[in-house]
Design goal:
The chain has 336 residues and is an alpha/beta fold. The protein contains ten helices and 14 strands. The chain is globular.
Length: 336
């Protein structure tokens, strides 16, 4: 494909990582993420799979080297494997360094072999509890055995699995060591994410769910020797090694600014809105220029203009932010 001058933001950071939501739909209804009775977007507002191909290919032509596919649950989008197949051509050409996804694991039995054959090397699986009853409670519609079978299928297909756990006070505090031990046995990477205390969310409240990761780390340190790692992926995760097991554990604290200086990522929604920063409301409409012309000239110009507005750092102002769900998982999707 034709390469253009790379995307550089106003603070001299190259934009090399794009997270793309391919659907707003999900087969779970996690209590901190969605209300039980969600109203989803009409189909005409969503980018088609062909439009997603054009959009992502434009970004890759502008220097994006890593593409993370998200949702909702990306694997419930009808025909989604045709999109992964389309993106795999950029892996084969060398333009794209990594194609990966974040998933709830429900569809991995069905799709793991296909994903591996198309060049996906690793995936993030969102999993907050290993207790079957609690899993059903927090996901409302999810079933833990189905997800565990999916994770096994991913391993068998050769995919590297990272488990993302949202730390929720009063819910999975007592499972901390069980989850760490399970990941050690199964050879999964592990990242904990701080739940964002945004107040009411549908029928649920987050204010009493907030479990600071500094407290979680202190609890871990009661059993393990934690060594800080200098590893920096350009993302929000900070890592430690558990000396007794050799595990690398990540921590994502959305409220901190600990990764802004090296932030190389932007986020595209399934309706074509580009968010230059996860912690700012400022966004750009890329769907209109995409649909206005069969040429990509207008789209590329709109992308370049949007990147000029990427801020130096994020600023979560909860009195102003209108949260419509999935922000915690949006943050988790940035991790690695």
């Amino acid at each position: 494909m034709t390469a253009f001058a790379p995307l550089i933001d106003p603070f001299a950071r190259p934009i090399q990582y794009l997270r793309v939501s391919v659907t707003d739909r999900c087969d779970f209804r996690c209590t901190y993420c969605m209300s039980e009775h969600m109203t989803f977007l009409p189909k005409k507002e969503l980018l088609s799979l062909e439009e997603l191909d054009r959009m992502c290919s434009a970004f890759i032509g502008l220097g994006v080297e890593k593409l993370r596919i998200t949702g909702g649950e990306p694997l419930v989008r009808k025909g989604i494997m045709t999109f992964f197949e389309a993106m795999s051509r950029h892996l084969e050409s060398g333009a794209l360094r990594e194609l990966t996804l974040t998933t709830n694991g429900s569809q991995l039995v069905k799709y793991s072999n296909d994903l591996a054959s198309l060049g996906v090397k690793r995936i993030n699986v969102s999993l907050d509890t290993l207790d079957e009853a609690k899993f059903a409670e927090i996901t409302r519609w999810g079933r833990l055995p189905q997800v565990l079978r999916g994770i096994d299928a991913a391993k068998e297909a050769g995919l590297r699995v990272k488990i993302n756990v949202v730390a929720i006070k009063g819910f999975n505090e007592d499972e901390l060591f069980n989850i760490v031990d399970w990941c050690a046995r199964e050879d999964h990477d592990l990242t904990f994410i701080e739940v964002m205390p945004m107040g009411e969310m549908g029928e649920e409240t987050r204010l009493d769910q907030y479990w600071p990761l500094k407290d979680l780390r202190a609890t871990l340190a009661e059993r393990f020797t934690l060594t800080e790692l200098s590893e920096n992926t350009g993302g929000p995760a900070r890592y430690v090694r558990l000396e007794e097991t050799g595990q690398k554990i990540g921590f994502i604290t959305p409220l901190t600014h600990n990764f802004c200086e090296s932030c190389n990522r932007v986020r595209l929604t399934c309706t074509g809105e580009l968010f230059m920063c996860l912690g700012q409301e400022d966004n750009a409409d890329l769907r209109a220029p995409l649909r206005a012309s069969e040429s990509d000239d207008l789209l590329i110009a709109a992308i370049r203009e949007a990147i000029t507005h990427k801020p130096k750092g994020h600023d979560f102002d909860y009195s102003r932010q209108k949260v419509k769900g999935q922000m915690t998982r949006h943050m988790s999707h940035t991790g690695g």
